[in-house]
Amino acid sequence: MGRYLAFRVEGPLAPAAIGLWGELGERGYSPAHARTRMRLMLELSRWMNEHGVGLAELNAGTLETLTADARAERQREGRWSPGRWYSPPSERDVLGYLRELGIVEPALVPVPTQLDLIVARFVEYVARERGVTNRTSVYWYERIARSFLTGRVDPDTGALESLTAGEVSGFLLRECVTCSRWVGMRLVTSLRGLLRFLLVDGLIDEDLSAAVPRLPAWSLVRLHKALPVDDAARIVASCDRTTPVGCRDYAILMMLSRTGLRGCEIARLLLEDLDWRAGEGIVRGKGQYYERLPLPVDVGEALVDYLRHGRPESADRHVFLTAIRPFRALRQEEYGIVGRIVTRASKRAGLGHVGVHRLRHTVATEALRAGAPLEEIASLLRHRDWVTTMGYAKVDSVRLRELARPWPGVLA
Fold first, then answer.
1. 337-348 and 229-237 are packed helices; what angle lies between their axes, rounded to 10 degrees?
2. Which residues, including other chains, have CB under 8 Å from residue 53's CB and lie 6 or more apart?
3. DSSP designation for 299
4. Number of neighbours of residue 67 by Cβ within 10 angstroms
5. Among 118, 180, 185, 249, which residue is least crowded by beta carbons within 10 Å?
6. Helix, coil or strand: residue 247
7. What is the H or E stretch that residue 34 is in?
8. Can you spell out the DSSP letters for 222-235?
């Protein structure tokens, strides 16, 4: 069907259609995904032919005009989308191929402003000096730095106007009025780091980081929500292990429920990280910390089953790959594909929405109830701060009752 669509393309893009179909096949796209790209090529060429648009006028704006026209037409018909032939990935692939052929001019790279350069140096600074590489953390550092520096950087010289502690406090007051406590914590941490960077970079002469107040952050105020062991087992057992996707999801859920790994650590796992002889694996944790973790026998068996029967052939060295062509590594965000795998499995098991960290809390809670000391739990979860592990001491209500003293005047 996709090759049939390639032959049906008429108009300015007809000569490139067959080549795109072959290119998509070489990249490993499934027939269904290749057809959506070919349909976009067909619609784009047809629209260019009808509106007298030549190859010299073809660019990303042309495609935006096409989709806007299609959307307006379908709205008049009572439908609200431009059709199944358009999606951002399809646009990226079609325009990318046409750029490779020289039909579409390369996308213009905007010239960075002085503000962009300072923010880029700041992001590099926090990655180098503080080991911040997590995409979510980098996003917040960049966003808050850009918000604070906008209007303060000279667009020609990059010089920063003189700052005072009052301006820093005023910015925080304006931003913290409507934000949540979590965003407020991000705000003060990022701003304090930015002010230290500006001093190191020579853009300011005085350390103003002390002007950023510390928000109250009480330790051990939150109870970790663990699942009953039977519920965690139901989530793992909900996978259909007769299919490649089921093999993959079962192996991921086994690792989460037995070892307490984070979602991002699952996504980063490489084939060379598995030491089968020693029964261990290398965990690529937060802040570029690498640690070795023992693999239980049942986890190892689940991994072997996936690698033999579920994992597609690919040059990618990541253990877990997507199930749809072109095969690639799972996204490394903690709540990306791994999070969706857990949520789908928990809904199949009739438990509603369950997040990745609920399984991590379950591992720690069950280890505590089995008599493991907090030192072992901290080692299992790879906590660098003991305060983080101390939170699990509150979830064992049976052992906590032993410490409770009777109320005065009440018989024990």
1. 100
2. 12, 47, 62
3. H
4. 20
5. 180
6. helix
7. helix 31-51
8. S---PPPHHHHHHH
CA distances from 109 to 105, 106, 112, 319 (A): 12, 9, 9, 35
* Residue 278: both structure tokens together: 């020693």
Q: For residue range 292-347, list pLDDT tens digits in order.
A: 888 889 999 999 999 999 898 888 899 999 887 778 888 654 447 888 899 999 99
Give the 3-state secondary structure of residue 183: helix
pLDDT confidence of residue 307: 93
CB 212 within 8 A of CB 192: yes
Cα 223–chain centre separation: 25
The amino acid sitting at 181 is R
Beta partners for residue 282, in sequence order = 292
CA dihedral (58, 59, 62, 63) positive or negative: positive
Answer for the pair 249, 238: CB distance below 8 angstroms, yes or no.
no
Residues of the chain with pLDDT under 70: 1-7, 73-84, 106-109, 216-224, 286-288, 331-335, 374, 384-405, 409-412
CA distance linking residue 248 with residue 269, whole number of Å: 13
Distance CA 50, CA 52 (A): 6
- What six digits make up the tokens of 208? 């103003």
Q: Which residues are catalytic?
A: 262, 286, 357, 360, 383, 392
- How far apart are alpha carbons 107 and 139 in whole angstroms? 24
Q: Per residue in 103-124, is it b (16+ CB within 10 Å) or e — as a string? A: bbeeeeeeeeebbeebbeebbe
Which helix or strand (DSSP H or E) is residue 396 part of? none
Read off the pTM. 0.68
Let me know how long the chain is: 412
Compute the distance between CA of residue 284 and CA of residue 300 in angstroms, rounded to an integer: 18
CB atoms within 10 A of CB 280: 16
Query: Rounded CA gap, 63 and 84, in Å?
Result: 15
Q: Quick one: pLDDT at residue 334?
A: 43
Please name which of 168, 158, 155 lies closest in space to residue 121, comparing C-alpha atoms.
158
Can you state the percent helix, strand and coil of the chain, rounding each to 5?
60, 5, 40
The residue type of 148 is F
Tokens of 233: 């087992």
